[in-house]
Design goal:
With about 425 residues, the protein is mainly β. Helix content is about 5%, strand content about 45%.
């Protein structure tokens, strides 16, 4: 079993002599981690550690991606959906502006540009709350534009769109998972935007439970590339080339409780998907593969514990690092084994009433944990828990997740983009 990278080595070599790979929301292998590297520990919004700083044209909450020497992000520009590219020194390369944006329902924590772009190395794709999906070349040429809501039905999510598109089967795949209205996976041709396949993903669930803001995984099992999605109290595996449903794993909501929408995405480690669910109160480990209903055979463990609700976990070397982002235990960091669910250690960040929405980043033995009020923690990770914790105040809201490329930490705030070295 292995992940399928959406970015080929050949494409990287063509793009730039600077090697940089953060081709999708959670980076290499969608893990939220980089095994080697070192982040700056202390920095300030106008001074120490800042290589460059850019004022953004509008407020978006999407995480940037990087391919070669291009840093790409979705954002509003003068009230319109847009894609922008910067080089790795902060200079704008191009911007593509489309139609009118649909603003986020909650502008404190949401926006019309919540979904991160994705790239296959030659093309870049954006997805917006308006339903607009766009394709362009990494060099900045518009290729196509379509609207999922106009073609397949309106957005009935209770909150702002959260899922990011992924590359699968050589095409762009978007997951639309909602309780009311249509719920489906759709594959679009990378060069034209034409539909390759569309698969319904509709289940009868309690109120709001079908609303999912998670991003799918793309993995290969026994030579078959598949898309794993989480929502509607189920984990499902679909064949990338056809969209065919291969297997389903339920059991995340055995008592059929209401309002168990899913925000934090699952993580994948060596055949095991670790699933945060139950509004920050449960975790589950699933051995994926097989066919049909695999619930009885695939669930390795399910435990009631304080867990993430919004901030997706990080995985590295079979260990899952997760941040309790809200509630009385907010700021609690846990490390557990993916296969067994055993908690190896727990540590606490400095106490605060503020919530975390950004997903953590692990680089080497350092965790980066941005909080909604703009405080960014850099914490040393040891075998027994967190070591030294450094608190950096960036002075504006932090909802987007951090990324790490070319020995640089990239942070997106509500007004600015920073490169820290």
């Amino acid at each position: 079993m292995k992940f399928r990278s959406s970015l080929s080595l050949a494409a990287l070599l063509v793009c730039s002599p600077l090697y940089a790979d953060w081709s999708e929301w959670r980076g290499p292998n969608a893990s939220g981690s980089v095994k080697e590297g070192k982040m700056p520990v202390e920095f300030a919004p106008e001074g120490k550690g800042v290589a460059w700083k850019i004022e953004l044209p509008g407020r978006g909450c999407s995480t940037p991606i990087v391919v070669g020497d291009a840093l790409l992000l979705t954002t509003p520009v003068d009230g319109n959906d847009a894609l922008i590219s910067y080089d790795l020194e902060g200079k704008e390369k191009w911007r593509l502006v489309y139609g009118e944006e649909i603003k986020g329902r909650g502008q404190r924590v949401g926006s019309g540009a919540n979904s991160s772009p994705v790239t296959d190395g030659e093309h870049v794709f954006g997805y917006f709350k308006s339903g607009r999906v766009v394709g362009a070349t990494v060099a900045g040429k518009k290729l196509w534009e379509m609207n999922l809501q106009e073609r397949y039905g309106k957005d009935h999510l209770w909150w702002d769109q959260g899922t990011s598109p992924v590359m699968a089967g050589g095409n762009l795949v978007v997951a639309v998972m909602q309780t009311e209205g249509n719920s489906y996976l759709v594959s679009l041709d990378a060069k034209t935007g034409k539909e390759i396949w569309k698969t319904e993903r509709k289940y009868d669930v309690p109120k709001e439970n079908g609303d999912s803001y998670t991003t799918p995984h793309v993995i290969e099992i026994d030579g078959v590339e598949m898309i794993i999605s989480f929502g509607a109290d189920r984990l499902t595996g679909h064949e990338s080339k056809s969209g065919k449903l291969l297997w389903t794993c339920a059991g995340q909501n055995p008592k059929n409780e209401n309002n168990w929408r899913t925000i934090a995405s699952s993580v994948y480690s060596d055949g095991v998907v670790v699933v945060p669910h139950g509004r920050g109160s449960w975790m589950m480990g699933v051995k994926v593969g097989g066919s049909g209903d695999i619930t009885e055979s695939a669930v390795l463990w399910r435990k009631k514990m304080t867990a993430p609700d919004s901030a997706s976990p990080v995985v590295q070397d079979g260990k899952v690092f997760m941040l309790v982002d809200s509630g009385k235990s907010r700021g609690l960091v846990k490390c557990l084994e993916a296969e067994s669910g055993n908690v190896l250690w727990e540590s606490k960040l400095p106490k605060s009433a503020k919530t975390f929405y950004a997903s953590p980043l692990l680089v080497g033995n350092q965790l980066c944990l941005p909080r909604e009020d703009g405080v960014v923690f850099i914490a040393e990770v040891t075998e027994k828990g967190l070591g030294k914790i450094t608190e950096n105040k960036m002075g504006e809201a932090m909802i987007a997740s951090p990324i790490y490329v070319n020995d640089s930490l990239i942070l997106r705030g509500s007004k600015h983009l920073w490169c820290l070295r």
